[in-house]
Amino acid sequence: MSSHLPSDRIRWGICLAVLALLLSFSLVAVASATPPPPEYRAQLAAPNLEYLNASDSGLFIKVDEYNSEQGLAKRPPSLPNVSDNYYYTTFTSPGTDEQYLDAVWYFNTWDGLTKGKDELHRYLQQHGTVTPIALNLSPELAGSSSPDIRELALLEQWQAINATRYDGDGTSGYFITFATNYYPGENYYITYYGIMGKADRSEETTHRLHLLAMTTIPRFISSFWFDYLDPATPMKVPLPSPIPMSWISLLMIGGLFLFLIIGFVFIPALVLAYITVGLSRWIEARSAPWIHSLLPPLVAVCLIVVPAGIVPFVDQVSAGVIEGIVLAALISMGVMTPWPLFLERLKVVKPQTAVFICGIGTFFVLTLGIMPWTQLSPDLGGFLIALAQPFPSAAVRSVIFYLESVVIAIVLYAMILFWDRVRRRRQSKKHPVEDEDQ
Questions:
Q1: Per mean pLDDT, which range of 294-298, 310-314, 389-393 is the poorest?
Q2: What is the distance between the alpha carbons of residues 396 and 432, in angstroms, rounded to a whole number?
Q3: Are residues 50 and 23 in the same domain?
Q4: Domain of 78, in residue numbers
Q5: SS3 category, 315
Q6: 124: domain CATH number?
Q7: For 6, which of 51, 131, 373, 408 is 20 to 30 Å away at the CA?
């Protein structure tokens, strides 16, 4: 009788367990994907400081933030409160020591927006100078590190945005109004980007205010959720259907999610795990033991260096495909790198079964690590931009992905080794009884 457990049953058991976990995770994500209440929607239009500071480290540093949950006492003294749902941020620029202020007011009705605009206009006229202007954000768009955002600089609508310039005693800056259908129903925003205190605005200060205004673009304008700037009429919201969602509709939605999970997560994980097992067998049969330890890291280095030199010279779609293939291959190399450390220690579990479990487990963990961020991000495009900004180099992203795969694989191998020892102890207790019978 073989001392190894039947590997096929273990592998298919792992596959079914992973599929069940992924399906459960998707159902929880769908069930929890309800729109946030109005008091939290104002934050969606706040400046994206992480995006700005990625290209110029320390351009803005957040000092304080407060929303409608904290009450009216926290509002800036230089601006009125024109909505029950707002979000204020203050930050500084270390290079100039200037203090900046961002204010966002959210409205879910056209009447609320109209009333808020009238109240704001009266306040601004009483406390400063109000001037309608056409805001040109094309220079800031053209200087973006994102190709998609740079293309917006060529469109006329971003060269003359209807805005209001305000010069007051406590602050001076720009007001912009826009609408979005990101959330169900009507969604209107009044945003303000200004400098605190009475100061003569230099070209650099104006440029930084434009940058603050531009950071709403990755969240709205580059996605299909954006509607229009400076709305003159109410949003057209489709009437709710009087017929409730039937079980057929629920079945169709559930089937779609199941198809996406199987097609884009489960099958790739299964294929990648079997490829990793095949590579490990091939290396074991055709190389010396010391090569087992050196070959996966060397292959990983080649996978990181060679594509990184090709990506800058191909189009964006091809670069994405190349990087996706490289990352998938790096998972296999990450699983195989610590493999020799555990190979000789396994007595009950087959080494190839351990590699298979680690391959599918590593892919599964990395997938689950990314999915919550896509749920929290305002849109997928903004998520990918934010994900790429801290590590603009494809080589750096690949190195981080490879190291993550190695760490996850080590943890999984350690768990398998622990389970292997438990099984071995259980089997050792049976041997004395069998010897006495003989």
A1: 389-393
A2: 55
A3: no
A4: 38-229
A5: coil
A6: 3.40.1000
A7: 408
Residue ending a domain, choose from 188, 203, 229: 229
202 and 250 inside one domain: no
Q: What is the DSSP string of 357-423?
A: HHHHHHHHHHHHHHHHHHHHSS-HHHHHHHHHTT---HHHHHHHHHHHHHHHHHHHHHHHHHHHHHH
Half-sphere exposure for 183 (CA within 13 Å, toward CB): 22
Q: Is the pTM of this model over 0.85?
A: no
Question: Which two tokens mark 246?
Answer: 């039937």
Residue 348: CB atoms within 10 A of its CB come to 18
Which residue do the tokens 């299964």 mark? 270
**φ and ψ of 169, to 5 deg:** -75, -35
43-78 exposure pattern, b = at least 16 Cβ within 10 A, e = fewer: bbbbbbbebbbbeeeebbeeeeebbbeeeeeebbeb
Residue identified by tokens 């489960």 is 266
Whole-number Å distance between alpha carbons of 114 and 118: 6
pLDDT > 70 fraction of the chain, expressed in percent and rounded: 69
Number of domains, the chain: 2
**CA proximity to 45, closest of 75, 88, 99:** 88
Same domain flag for 282 and 340: yes
Establish how many alpha carbons lie within 13 A of residue 346's alpha carbon, considering only the half-sphere containing its beta carbon: 21
pLDDT at res. 304: 84
